[in-house]
Write a structure and sequence with these properties.
The chain has 332 residues and is an alpha/beta fold. It is built from 10 helices and 12 strands. It folds into 2 domains: 230 residues, Spore Coat Polysaccharide Biosynthesis Protein SpsA, Chain A (Alpha-Beta Complex), CATH 3.90.550; 88 residues, no CATH class.
């Protein structure tokens, strides 16, 4: 079954029978790509949510050929064990998958208030949904982020939880000025309708950062951002993600994204490009000193070199460098 948009970029692979779409208050979107076992674990954690809110799940399969994730999850929906649907996002890429799920939510669930996002390498704690929604309502926040707590495949890597690549940006619940990730996120329906599709910029499709850009643009539009420290998801971290090459690539990528997002935020203002470049050069000049301070404080070289890699990434973006880690998902 093909649904809008009319170009056939999204299709429904499975749907729970008798789905009362009008009664759904919360929609959870769950993108998946070549992780059939893990996405089932994520769905199991969603089935275990402790809440009185009526919610539905949209699984967005982004591997349109083999469709391992769709094949694994369809039976749960078709047997009615999970409310919602499985869709195929035929256009490859991180942003394409999110856009497909969010547009499907708008089209098929006319009365939902909150849209939540979780990834297929994450497990939601039982109170996750309720805490995210309650925090949004208590803070009057339009968008709420929550911590992605790393769970390392090798317990010996636990120290890496304090590295900026993995550590949550905030420690306490409340209003915040910026959010950066969609891995644990709540977005109000009114935000999606105001921002309009495509929600995530496809230029970030294989780099990542489309979520950071969307959140930056939303804040620019005046939407209120919040953080819920208690609404945790547990993120599985394979051993390869603490290897020096991966950490360096992710750090450089963070710098690239920072430049690209800032350029979009300043677009149309006087000397926008010059200001971004000067800031990047200033950060590059300061980064060795920032690194030395970190090294003196922590005695951890991997942590100390992080601001240097980010600053290099910021400057490299000015010359067209783009680290598209999602082009080779098996290495991500």
């Amino acid at each position: 079954m093909i649904l809008s948009p009319s170009d056939g970029s999204i299709s429904i692979a499975g749907r729970s029978p008798g789905l009362a779409a009008d009664s759904i208050e919360v929609v959870i979107t769950l993108p998946t790509f070549k992780r059939p076992a893990q996405v089932l674990e994520t769905l199991a954690s969603l089935r275990a949510q402790v809440t009185a809110r009526r919610f539905a799940v949209i699984v967005m399969e982004n591997e349109a050929e083999a469709r391992e994730g769709a094949r694994a999850t369809q039976p749960l929906f078709e047997r009615g064990e999970m409310a919602g649907m499985v869709i195929i996002a035929h256009e490859r890429g991180n942003c394409s998958a999110y856009n497909a799920g969010w547009q499907t939510a708008i089209l098929h669930f006319p009365n939902f208030r909150h849209l939540l996002v979780i990834d297929d390498d994450e497990i939601a704690e039982p109170q996750w949904l309720e805490r995210m929604c309650a925090t949004a309502e208590a803070l009057g926040a339009d968008i709420v982020g929550g911590p992605q707590v790393p769970v390392f495949a090798d317990p010996a890597h636990a120290r890496w939880a304090d590295h900026p690549v993995f550590a949550p940006p905030y420690a306490t619940t409340g209003h915040v000025r910026s959010l950066y990730s969609s891995g644990n996120l709540l977005v109000g329906r009114h935000v999606l309708t105001a921002m309009g599709p495509p929600f995530l910029d496809l230029r970030f499709n294989f780099m990542g950062g489309g979520d950071s850009d969307f959140l930056s643009r939303s804040a620019q539009r005046g939407f209120v951002l919040g953080w819920c420290a208690e609404a945790r998801v547990l993120e599985s971290v394979p051993a390869r993600r603490v290897e020096p090459d991966w950490i360096r690539a992710r750090s450089l990528r963070n710098g690239v994204i920072s430049t690209l997002v800032e350029k979009k935020r300043r677009a149309g203002t006087p000397f926008a490009g010059t200001k971004v470049m000067l800031k990047s050069l200033a950060l590059l000049a300061a980064s060795p000193f920032r690194g030395l301070v970190r090294l003196a404080r922590t005695r951890w070289p991997a942590l100390a070199i992080y601001p240097i890699h980010v600053a290099i990434g910021r400057v490299a973006a000015e010359f067209g460098y783009a680290n598209e880690q999602y082009r080779q998902p098996e290495k991500n």
